[in-house]
Every structure is written in C-alpha cells, then in structure tokens.
Amino acid sequence: MKSLMNVALGIVTSIGGFLDVGAIATAALAGAAFGVQMLWVLAVGTVCVIFLTEMAGRLACVSHHSLVDAVRERCGFRYFSFLLIGELFVDLLVLAAEIGGVAVALHLITGIDYRWFVPIVAFALWLLIWLGTFSIVQNGASLLGLITLAFVVGMWWMGPPWHEAMKAVVPSTPTHDAAKYWFIAVGILGALFEPFMLNFYASGAIEEKWSLKDIPMNRVTAVLGMSFGAVIAVSIVMLSALTLGPHGIQVDSYEQAALMMVQPFGSWGIPLFAACLGIACFGASLQVALNLAYLFSQGFGWRWSENLKPHEDARFALVYTLAIPVGAILVMVLGDPLQITTFSMALNALLAPVIVFPLLILMNDRHYLREYRNHALGNIVVSAIVIIAFLIAIVAIPLEVLGG
Amino acid sequence: MRLLCVSVTVALAAIGGGCSKSPATIAKETRQAAASWAATLSAGAEWWGSSEVSTSYFQTLVDQARTSLQKEEQTARKSAGDAAAAPVKAVASHAAAIADAVKRGDRTAAILAGHAAALEVPAEKTPAVARPE
Predict the structure, then answer these.
(1) How far is A58 from chain B (nearest CA, A)?
(2) What is the CATH topology of the domain spanning B27-120?
(3) ipTM topping 0.95
(4) What percent of the residues of chain B are helix, what percent strand, and what percent coil, each to the nearest 5?
(5) Mutation for A interface: B50, B57, B66, most A CBs within 10 A
(6) What pLDDT is recorded for position B132?
(7) Domain holding A168: CATH number?
(8) Could A270 and B57 be called an inter-chain contact, meaning their C-beta atoms sit closer than 8 Å?
(9) Structure confidence at residue A158 (pLDDT)
(10) Is B133–A246 a contact, with Cβ atoms under 8 angstroms apart?
(11) Do B52 and A266 touch (CB under 8 A)?
(12) Number of domains, chain A
C-alpha cells in the first residue's frame, strides 16, 4: 500500500514538475503559429525525457550518487568545471524566466507592472526554501501544480481534432517560416529535457533515500509521470491551435497566450491561465534554485540537503541565497520574460549533450550501476535525440536571432 | 581543442553573417507582428464587450500592444524605411483609440476600433490543422 502511495505521489510530482514556464510558452507558441503540426516534437521529446529521468533515478537508487556528484567523480574536476559554468549560466537564465513567469501571472490578475512583483516573488521563493523541507518544497508545489490540468479540460471543451492530432505525431517539415518552426522545435525539446531537472530528480531521490527496492517505482514514475506531463503540454498546443491560430493571433507576449483560455472558460479563463502559469513557474523556480545549490555543493563536496537547517549546510544555503536575487535582477534587466524563456529553452537544448553524454557513460559503468546498467536501446534512443536537438539548435538559434 | 573552438566560432560567425535580416524580411516580420496585434485587439475587444475578460486585463493587453507596436515601428523605420513601418503605425493608431475607449468604458467603440485594426492589417489565420509538407 505504501509503495502504491509512493507511486501515486511520484506521478503527481511529475505532473507538477514537468510543466514550467518553458513548456507553457513553447507549446503556446507552437500551437498559435503552426496548429497541431508540431505535436511530433513533443512526442519525440517525451520519449527522450522518460528514458533520461528513469536513468537519473536509477543512478541514484543503485549508486546513491546524484548526477553531478557522479559526473565529477567519473569525468574529473576539469569536465565538471565546464559543466558547472554551462549549467550555471543556463540555470540562472531559466530561474529568471521562471521568476518572470510568476510575476507576469500576478500582473495578468492585477494589471500592475510585473517588475513590481519580481522582488516579492524572489523573497517568497527564498523564504520557502530557507524554511521548508524537501517534501514541502517538492510535494506542495507539485500538488498545487495539478491546476494545470485546466489546460486538458479546456482542450476537451473545445473539441480537439483527434484524427489530425494523431497524424501530427509523425514528423513533418514546415510549409512556412522554417527558421521559426525549427527554433520553436528546439525550444520545446529544451523545455522537456532541461538539464536542471535531471540532477534535481536524482538529488531528490537521494534526499528521499531511494534504494534498490525503489527501482520499479522510479520506472513507473518516469513513464507515467512524464507521459501525464506531456498530455498537459499537448493540451496547451491543441488549445492554442484551436483558439489563437484561427484568430490570427501569434504569441509574442504572455498577455496574448492567456487569451487561449477565454473561449473554453469565459470570464474564468484569464485568472485560470494566470493561476496555472504562476503555480507552475513557482514550482519550477524552487527546483532550479535548489538545483543550483545541489550543483555547487555536490561538485565541491560540501554538505548538502534541503532537509537540513540552513546553519547545518551554510554553503548550500548561501548558493540559493545568492542565485535567487541574481535571477530576479536578470529578469528586471533583460526584460520581456517570454523572450528570456524561449531563448533559455533553446540554450537548454545546446547544453543537453554536456550532461546527457556523461550520464550515458555512467549508466554503462559497472562500478556505478552493477547489473542495473543500460540496455542498448536506451543508449541509442537518447543519444540520437540529443544529437539531433543539438544540431538543430546550432543552426536554428542564429537563424532565429539574426534573421530568417 | 583550440582548433575545434576556432572552427566552431568561424562556423557560427558564417551562419550569423550569412543570415542578417534584409529590409524585405524586416518589412514582412513587421507586417506579421502588426497583423497579429490587430487580431489580438479585435478578439480582445469582443471579449471585453461581452465581459469575458476584465477591464484591468484588457487594459493590460492594450498597453502591451501599444508598447510592442511602438518597438516594432522604431525597428522597421530604422532598418527598412517608413513604408515598412506603415502597417504598425496604422494598428498603433487604432490601439490608441481602443485605449481611450477603455478609459471611457465605451465597449462599443473599442469593438469598432478593434475591427477596424483587423480590417486594415488582416492577419494570416493558422488553421488548427495545418497541412504539413
């Protein structure tokens, strides 16, 4: 019974944790600009993220190492430094995007400029991490994150074109705006396999003291949880395709994206969108800020745990205490949270190989995984998808940034 | 390693240099942005008219539209000339009319101005089911 509860909680956690500002923004962009045509990108990305999440969890269950910890040990400090710089840069941008997402959600409800909310959101975020334990941070945000099921209800209400949606799972090329199409594709993939999520997941498994007996639960959590999360992302694409695209509305700001909920929910639409955006982003910003603390602490061998009091792991607490204001300052300085989001998601796709390939090395290492090593299928699928995403990112980012 | 870094830098510079935006591209993008905002204002005004969105949200939407259109106009004028900026200017003037209507609480005037914007710069509508190649 207890293990069933754990599985259920794991699935709920994944639904809440899967959806963040990047998933909402890129799915809304894709639906408005290309209808349901880009659903295949979500399908491919979800397969990849299921494999990756399961691997990160299995690594923690068998070796009791988090991802960063194991990478530093196996690949050396020099490689770890490279990973640290890359992930620090991208995670800070993602943190800025998430804080910006919460601030924009409050702006949508109140009409007050989002910048006023940025310091308040940053302080609330820091306070929750400072005072909370891992289970409060993880499960609280994730349970609230179930509100994002409103996207599924909205899609259902609008009567989705199921037949065409099924056809769209087969990869296709764009009929117009190729640069934009591939840039959004990279953004969707980047939003799905955000490097921070893998290390956060593995660190969480260690915080919750997973062991060999939790391997089946890890597998169920990865498959069902990520699939449910993907259903929500698919719903956003479909909802955006059914409500924004036919009006000729493109998503250049969150104010426009919010309109997708008006047709199915009427006057509740905008507050509901704001609640979904705010809660999903707040949950994700907790994860990113904590992951930065995990990254430094595990990499440099400091004491770490969200379950310890801040004075017991002071350097761990110092990292998120510094990271959160930096993220807040970035969103104030850079402006336009939607642009920060799309750009940081594309950078995620660029960074993915730096963390995924060491993970694959670890997952095939007898010293760490013993008889629980990877099968060839997992290695091939993950390598292929990550290389393709990386190659598309190299071409699509300059094309989109510098011109069509 | 050094050779690899240099090669990657050169490749990225080549991609970047080879695809700087032409005035025609900027004009096309500006028109698309103007059309999208016109469609947004038109739909938003309709929904405000039927009380499906709140006045505070609609005000926010109109303010965002005006800010974005102003930026688009500046970029277009600087890089592609006055002709490229014309569609944005047209939509911006309707957005200003809608902002005034919101201040007065005149929902009918907002709807009319929204429709006028959408007619002046029509948006390319994306069907939910696009036809892939």
Answers:
(1) 33
(2) Four Helix Bundle (Hemerythrin (Met), subunit A) (1.20.120)
(3) no
(4) 80, 0, 20
(5) B57
(6) 45
(7) 1.20.1740.10
(8) yes
(9) 94
(10) no
(11) yes
(12) 1
